[in-house]
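Our consortium's second objective concerns turning raw sequence data into structural hypotheses that experimental partners can test. To show how far this objective has progressed, the report includes one record in full. It was chosen at random from the queue rather than selected for favorable results. The single chain below, 236 residues long, was entered without modification.
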Amino acid sequence: MEIKAFVKNKKFLTTIMLTILGSFAIEVFKTFYSSVYSNNYEGYLIWTFHEFWEIGFFFICYFILKRFDVIFGDTIIFLFFGLVFSSITWSFYSKSFKYVQPNYYGVESRLNYNTHQEGRYDEQTNFDHKISQGCLYKANDPELLSELKEASRNNEYVGTRGFLFWQTGRAYGFIPIGIEEYNGGRSFLNHLELYFTIGPVLLFECFLTGLYTNFISLIFLQLIWFIWKKKFIWWS
């Protein structure tokens, strides 16, 4: 009965739109956080300007929430719990759920998991081997397996990271050497093209990823809230 009331409510369509936006925002936040704060990666390419596109997206989200009189603070808390819940559930079902397969794979490696210090007294140096990005390949490229084998000889960890678009892989720091569409950034016009393509394509991939990883989780949490409180989570 509560589910029928949830669907028939006049705010239902707005809720669906805001849920899609929230699913999108979670993925953009994860990308932005990894780019700026994470120590696991050596950093995305700042010269691609994708961070500026992400910041611009957050400003747009703010004005959309303001337009629909959404409680901003409660929304941030809800999306945080949605991020945690989605991450936990996705860790269990990601291997069995047949989602869109990546078109490109980047090879990443880490020399050693251990952190140690070397030197004498106050001259000691900390050695913390971070994950480094290698080349980016199409999913069916035979060179992908060759690089994995080569990287395994000298690194304790070797793995791949999948992407729908090569622009997203480039933003993460992988080098698309064997991809014809990549211009290499050799000239000013080449850089200008990358500035205005990598950011938007990265956001589009975040949108697609958010739909199949976060949307259902956010809907589930809202149903629980609606059944419990008899109101939508976006409004007081």
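The partners drew two points from this record. The first strand starts at residue 104 and ends at 110. Residues 2-229 form one domain. Both points have been shared with the crystallography group to help prioritize constructs.
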